[in-house]
Specification:
Layout (H helix, E strand, L loop, with lengths): L2 H4 L6 E9 L3 H17 L5 E5 L13 E2 L2 H6 L12 E2 L2 E7 L4 E4 L14 E2 L2 H14 L3 E4 L3 E6 L5 E6 L2 E3 L5 E6 L3 E9 L6 H9 L11 E10 L9 E7 L8 E8 L3 E9 L9 H8 L3 H7 L3 E11 L10 E2 L2 E3 L15 H20 L8 H9 L1 H8 L3 H26 L41 H5 L14 E3 L4 H10 L3 H4 L5 E5 L5 E5 L9 H5 L5 E3 L14
Parallel strand pairs: 1-2, 1-13, 2-8, 5-15, 13-20
Antiparallel strand pairs: 3-7, 4-7, 5-6, 9-10, 10-13, 11-12, 14-17, 14-18, 15-16, 16-17, 19-20, 21-24, 22-23
C-alpha cells in the first residue's frame, strides 16, 4: 500500500463465490451458466458482474454476424424469450476492390466455414443488454459503472477478487468533495472477461507468465459506423465483405457491410495493426473506403447515426495464452478467441463462459477455492473453441508474410485442407513473430499519405464522428492514458516514427502541437477516448499504458 493509499479510508468488502469482470458475451454467459448449474443442483452460487460501462452494452462494439452455436447451448429457447437476434443471413457477397472497380468472387470456391448460412446479423450491444436481463432474473448481481481497477491476492499469491476504482478523484490525483472509495469484491474464483487488451488481463498475463510458450498476440483495429439508409438501398440479411483498396497489398485488412433491422447498415473497416507505414491512418482509410464506386451508393440518401472503434484480437490458436491462474481464468476476447477469417468471436466468447462456469461449479461443489481451473483450460483447447481456432491458425501469418493477394489465396487452400482433414490443414502451425508495435517502420522509409478532406455527408473528421459515440469522461479526473516516460513521444517517436499516435488513434486523442516558443509538445485529449486500446498495442516504444478511467466513462454506444 502506498503512502497516499494509507491516508484514504479503508475500502468496504463484499464476499462472493464468483466475481466476473466485464458484462460482455463471455462474462454474462458465465454468470448465467453458473446460476443454471446451481439451480440444477438445488444449491446457490453467489455471482457478481462488474462492468466499467455506464450500462450493460454501453462499451460493446462489434459487426456483428453471430454464429448461434453458443446462444443455442446457453439458452436454447432464446427465440421464445425475445432475444434481439432476428435478421438471418440471406446473402453472402465477397468482393476484391481496386481503385475504381471491383471483382465479385463466386461463392462456390469459398471454404464452408466462411459461409454465413444459419448465422444472424445483430447489434451485439443489444444482445448483451438482453443477456444482462436474463442474468439478473436468475439472481446475478450486476454493477454497471464500476471499473475493476485492481486485482486482489491472498496470502499465497492466488487471485482473490478485484477492487473497483475510487470515484471523485481530481485531476491532481487528490480526492475531491465527491470522493467515494472503491469496493473490494472478494471471491473464491475471479473470471476476467474484459475483451481485447483488457488492463487486468494484461497485468495477469504478465504476472503469471501466461504467454510463455505462445506466440505474441496480434491485433487489428475495427472501425464502425451505423447508418440508416434509404429503404430502396436496404437488403435485409445481406452480408458483404471486401479486401483490397484502399489498403495496399502489404497492409492487411478489409471491410464489412451488414444489412439488418429498420433500414440499418453496419459498415466497418478493419486494419491489421502490424502495418509498417507509420503515416497510415486506419480511420482515414475507412473514410476513403466509403468513397469507392461499389460502396458509396449504399449510403447516398442515408444518415450516419453511430460511430465507434475497438481493438480486435487476431493471433488465434498460437497466440492464445494459458487460460488459468491460481484463483481464476481468462475468457473470450481477453484470451484472444476470435476466428479471424470468419470475423467472429462472440460464439467462442459464449462457449468460453459456459466452459468456465462448468469448471467453477465443479470446483465449488468439491469445496475448492483459489486454485487453477484446469478443467476449463482442457475444455477450451480440446472442445469446440479449440477446433474452431485450430482450423484457421495459419490464415493470419500467411496474410502477413505473403501479402493480401497471395496470402489470402494460400490461406484459402489451408482452410479447404482443414475442411477435408479437420484440424490438420497444411500440417504445421506458422508463427507470427513480431508484436504489432515492433512491426512499425521508420518514417524515413515512407512518404506521408495525403488523405482527402471529409465532405461531411459520406466522410467525416474524427471529432465529428466521436460525437456520435456518446463518449464522455468526467472533466476533472486524472488522465487514464499514462506515459511511462513523458519525454519519449517527442524525443524518440517524433523523429523516428513521425509520432504515429497522431494517426493510429481513431478519436484524435493524441496530438503534436507547437508550444509558445515554437517547440513540439505531445498533447493527450483523454476526454475523446473511445477505449479502443490501439495506443496500448501499436505505440512503437510501448510507452503508452491504457488504464481504466472512472467507472461509467467512455463511449455510450446505442445499437452498436
Amino acid at each position: 500500500m502506498s503512502a497516499d493509499e494509507a491516508e484514504l479510508p479503508p475500502r468496504e468488502a463484499m464476499d462472493f463465490d464468483v466475481v466476473i469482470v466485464g458484462a460482455g458475451p463471455a462474462g454474462l454467459s458465465a454468470a448465467i451458466r453458473l446460476k443454471q448449474k446451481a439451480a440444477a443442483a438445488g444449491s446457490d452460487i453467489s455471482v457478481v458482474v462488474v462492468e466499467k460501462g455506464s450500462e450493460v452494452g454501453a462499451h460493446i462494439l462489434s459487426g456483428a454476424v453471430i454464429d448461434p452455436i453458443g446462444i443455442n447451448r446457453l439458452i436454447p429457447d432464446w427465440k421464445e424469450r425475445g432475444a434481439p437476434i432476428e435478421t438471418e443471413v440471406t446473402e453472402d457477397v465477397f468482393r476484391v476492390l481496386g481503385p475504381q472497380g471491383d471483382i465479385r468472387l463466386p461463392g462456390w470456391p469459398m471454404p464452408p466455414l466462411l459461409k454465413n448460412h444459419g448465422n444472424y446479423i445483430v447489434s451485439l450491444g443489444s444482445v448483451c443488454k438482453w443477456l444482462g436481463e436474463q442474468a439478473a432474473e436468475l439472481g446475478v448481481e450486476i454493477y454497471p459503472g464500476f471499473a475493476a481497477s485492481e486485482v486482489l491476492y491472498d496470502e499465497n499469491g492466488a487471485v482473490a477478487g478485484i477492487a473497483t476504482g475510487d470515484m471523485g478523484v481530481g485531476r491532481d490525483g487528490a480526492p475531491s468533495e465527491n470522493f467515494v472509495r472503491g469496493m473490494e469484491l472478494r471471491a473464491k474464483y475471479t473470471l476476467v472477461a474484459e475483451g481485447a487488451r483488457g488492463s487486468l488481463s494484461k497485468l495477469l498475463i504478465g504476472k503469471f507468465d501466461l504467454a510463455k510458450g505462445h506466440e505474441p498476440q496480434k491485433f487489428g483495429i475495427g472501425l464502425k459506423e451505423l447508418w440508416q439508409v434509404a429503404p430502396e438501398k436496404h437488403r435485409p440479411g445481406s452480408v458483404q465483405h471486401t479486401f483490397g483498396w484502399p489498403l495496399d497489398n502489404r497492409t492487411g485488412g478489409g471491410s464489412f457491410l451488414y444489412h439488418y433491422g429498420d433500414n440499418l447498415v453496419s459498415v466497418g473497416f478493419v486494419v491489421h495493426l502490424n502495418y509498417k507505414n507509420p503515416y497510415l491512418s486506419p480511420y482515414e482509410e475507412f473514410q476513403r473506403f466509403k468513397t469507392h464506386p461499389a460502396i458509396r451508393d449504399v449510403f447516398e440518401g442515408g444518415k450516419r447515426i453511430g460511430y465507434g472503434a475497438r481493438a480486435i484480437t487476431e493471433g488465434g490458436w498460437q497466440s492464445m495464452p494459458d487460460l488459468v491462474f491460481p484463483g481464476g481464468a481468462l475468457l473470450g476476447c481477453a484470451a484472444g478467441m476470435v476466428n479471424l477469417p470468419r470475423i467472429k468471436g462472440s460464439h467462442n466468447a459464449i462457449l468460453s463462459g459456459i466452459a468456465a462456469a462448468d469448471a467453477v461449479a465443479g470446483a465449488l461443489a468439491a469445496g475448492r477455492a483459489h486454485d487453477k481451473l484446469e478443467d476449463y483450460e482442457k475444455a477450451v483447447r480440446t472442445g469446440d473453441i479449440g477446433r474452431d481456432l485450430k482450423k484457421v491458425r495459419n490464415m493470419k501469418p500467411l496474410w502477413s508474410r505473403f501479402g493480401t493477394a497471395l496470402g489470402v489465396a494460400l490461406g484459402g487452400v489451408d482452410l479447404w485442407l482443414n475442411t477435408i482433414i479437420s484440424g490438420i490443414g497444411l500440417g504445421f502451425t506458422l508463427k507470427h513473430g513480431k508484436t504489432d508495435a515492433a512491426a512499425t517502420g521508420l518514417a524515413a522509409n515512407y512518404k506521408p499519405i495525403a488523405y482527402p478532406k471529409p465532405d461531411g455527408k459520406l466522410t467525416f473528421d474524427r471529432l465529428t464522428n466521436v460525437s456520435f459515440s456518446g463518449t464522455n469522461h468526467e472533466e476533472n479526473q486524472p488522465v487514464h492514458l499514462k506515459l511511462l516516460d513523458p519525454a519519449v513521444p517527442i524525443a524518440i517517436n517524433l523523429p523516428e516514427y513521425a509520432e504515429p499516435a497522431q494517426r493510429y488513434c481513431p478519436a484524435a486523442v493524441y496530438e503534436v502541437v507547437t508550444d509558445e516558443v515554437g517547440q513540439p509538445r505531445f498533447q493527450i485529449n483523454a476526454q475523446n477516448c473511445v477505449h479502443c486500446k490501439t495506443c496500448d498495442i501499436k505505440d512503437p516504444s510501448q510507452n503508452i499504458v491504457w488504464t481504466c478511467p472512472e467507472g461509467g466513462g467512455g463511449p455510450n454506444y446505442a445499437g452498436m
